[in-house]
Amino acid sequence: MRLDKYLAEAGIGRRKNVREYIKQGLVMVNGEISIQPALEIKEGIDIILYDNTEVKYKEKVYYMFNKPSGCITATRDKKNKTVFDYFNDEASGIFHVGRLDKDTEGLLLFTNDGEFEHLLMHPSKHINKTYFFWALGSLNESDKKSLEEGVFLQQNEILTKPAKIEIYKEGRYLDFKEEIYIKSLIDVDCKNYNPQIVSGYLTISEGKKHQVKRMLKAVGCYVVYLKRVAIGDLKLDQSLKSGEYRNLTVDEINMLLDNHNY
Fold it and tell me: Residues in domain RNA-binding S4 (predicted)?
């Protein structure tokens, strides 16, 4: 196994990070500093040290996590709760695969397998990600066609890749007030303000910053609730409560690795 792959799978960091650690001379193999990420090593035989601490190979783990709103996708933060605060010590050494915004809920994957993350996150893979949203505004046929064919998120930026849009419900806020819990709308004076509202599923195959919110904004909608419900064909387990996680099954792992763009 390559040295950089070994370190990544041992939970030291992502492949790109551990390559830098190796080049900086922080890794020793059998008592000698190695600066070659591609060095072949024998698991269980060669002694690997990172920053003078022995690195032992860990079994690969894969988790599905139902991210709550209000926590950030980061290892640590001085002001906010992070996604790692929901994991037990048994999950040490894992890292998140991609990220979700602070106020976005839903499906987030974790692993200690750097190769798995690379296969899912590399821009050339175009893995589909599906989000459920509630937004202020409405979507007519022209708007839906724009989303499906691609929109400009800002001036001098290329079109987004083709997407899929499926409308779930649309009407006025009062029609759905009891059905949806949206913190940003809780104190709205509905006697004087009853905006149009629409919900649906948007499937994208790229990961620009705040992409779903920006795409819907481009067609006149303001997102007030967002939840990722699927990555490829893998759907969020509805039995997982907010903040809970579980191991992926072998079939689910294979499903992710076999996914292709629509």
Answer: 1-60
